[in-house]
Design brief:
By secondary structure, the protein is an alpha/beta fold. It has eight helices and nine strands. The chain has a seven-stranded parallel β-sheet with strand order 3-2-1-4-5-6-9, with helices on both faces. α5 links the parallel β5 (108-112) and β6. The two termini are 25 Å apart.
Length: 219
């Protein structure tokens, strides 16, 4: 099997940090390029890292070269400061990166989306993720994968007490047999599912719902 060159944005986040480590350890990948606003803090012979300003694609577009683009970038409304600022990070930065990638000949894209993603959703977060899925679907990648996990668990580099409380509440509800669609999932499980999905080439687009993500990761 020919080794792949991975491209990754969002490498300092919960899923992205686990994904980066797994990509570096995976012999099926010869190299990994990370593009981000700050360093991931790792040293590895397979790793190349570029600190970029996502709002200036003319500066970073030539760096987007590889086989698979992994989109793990995201923020919260509280950290971003507004819905508009969150939308810029979660939607615009990722869609712009994918647009450049497909123009540069990158063949595959793998996105961390969300359970409940739907472009007509009345809920802002689900609608944003649904719009991103919808618009990525129009790009001529040979292979598109959308991973839809429930709430994410695992150590984070930033304080998200509200999210952690929400995960605890949902976990309690799950034990009562309710809201299984939003069963919490560890970031490393999502990362493993993303890598496994990379090598499923049966059709143009795959959407893995929350329960399928666990099976895809083999847990």
């Amino acid at each position: 099997m020919t080794q792949k060159h991975a491209l990754l944005i969002g490498a300092t986040g919960l899923v992205g940090s686990h994904l980066l480590k797994r990509l570096l350890d995976d012999e099926r990948f010869a190299s990994v390029t990370v593009l981000g606003r700050r360093t991931a803090g790792l040293q590895h012979p397979k790793l190349t890292e570029h600190i970029i300003d996502f709002s200036k694609p003319e500066a970073w577009a030539p760096l987007v070269q590889g086989d698979v683009l992994y989109l793990c970038l995201g923020t919260t409304r509280a950290k971003a400061g507004s819905k508009q600022a969150q939308y810029e990070v979660d939607y615009s930065y990722q869609f712009n990166m994918a647009t450049v990638a497909v123009k540069n000949g990158v063949g595959s894209v793998v996105l961390v989306s969300s359970a409940g993603a739907r472009h007509t959703s009345p809920f802002f977060y689900m609608r944003m993720k649904g719009e991103l899925e919808r618009d990525l679907s129009t790009l001529p990648f040979r292979h598109k994968v959308f991973i839809r996990p429930g709430p994410l668990t695992g150590p984070r580099s930033e304080d998200r007490r509200a999210e952690n409380l929400g995960v605890a509440v949902i976990s309690t509800i799950n034990r009562l047999g309710l809201m299984k669609k939003y069963k919490p999932i560890h970031g490393d499980t999502v990362a493993l599912a993303m890598i496994n999905a990379t090598f499923i080439q049966a059709q143009d687009k795959h959407i893995f719902e929350y329960s399928e993500v666990f099976r895809l990761a083999g847990v």
